[in-house]
Amino acid sequence: MPEMSNSNSNSTVVSELIDGFGNVETGTVAIYRTLYDRIFWDLNEAEAELSGERIDFANLIHAAAHLRLVIEGVTAASFIANHVLFAKINQRMQSAKNYDAMRKAVRNLNQHYWPRAFGIVEHGGQTGIGVLSDTGLAEAEVGRYFGTVSELLHVRNPFAKTPKPDDYLKQLLSLIEKFRDLLNWHIVQLADSSEYLYLRNLDGEIKVQALKTENPLL
């Protein structure tokens, strides 16, 4: 893998106790952090491709490639505690004919595979941590954006009407923003488990906590 050029490459794993939760210490925390180190790198590289004074079609293609990897990484991340399931989901993603088929295969193995933004919320006059509704990229939106990046990465049909480059740029920038809102502070339920992983990206320092709670979060 190429050397990562942003501050995330110097991140350290920090696992802390949150009041009201039991802290679950496993190697899964470190693996998840490593996976997201790469995901955030791809997200940063996609944004860099679209941040220059002059953006050409090559920049769009490069950004789309990074964002395709982000989508696949996020989709597979909840399976990292089980190497058999992770290998199975990778195979299913690679063999799926389209995103709907890939989504169906993933949901059959973990219906809570898609992360949810998680942070400070107010409920009943009290402040605590919880799921942030309507924040970041929703699972239902992924298929549309997956179609956009796939169009940029595959041979174009010369007889079909295609979006203008500016339209592609707008959609890719929107996807980056939605991913950042979702992923910088998020929680996900591990496949075939009642455990959750809570990740915070604090100015490049990635902190991951493994949690258990008796109350469903998702």
Give a brief outline of the structure:
By secondary structure, the protein is an alpha+beta fold. It has helices spanning 28-49, 57-76, 83-95, 99-109, 139-153, 165-183, and strands spanning 22-23, 116-123, 126-131, 185-189, 196-202, 205-212.
General description of the model:
The protein is of the alpha+beta class and 218 residues long. The protein has helices at 28-49, 57-76, 83-95, 99-109, 139-153, 165-183; strands at residues 22-23, 116-123, 126-131, 185-189, 196-202, 205-212. The protein has 6 helices and 6 strands. The longest helix has 22 residues, at 28-49. The protein is globular. Mean pLDDT is 86; it is low at 1-9 and 13-21.
Question: Secondary-structure map with pairings?
Answer:
Layout: E1 22-23, H1 28-49, H2 57-76, H3 83-95, H4 99-109, E2 116-123, E3 126-131, H5 139-153, H6 165-183, E4 185-189, E5 196-202, E6 205-212
Antiparallel strand pairs: 1-6, 2-3, 2-4, 4-5, 5-6
Helix pairs in contact: 1-2, 2-5, 2-6, 3-4, 5-6
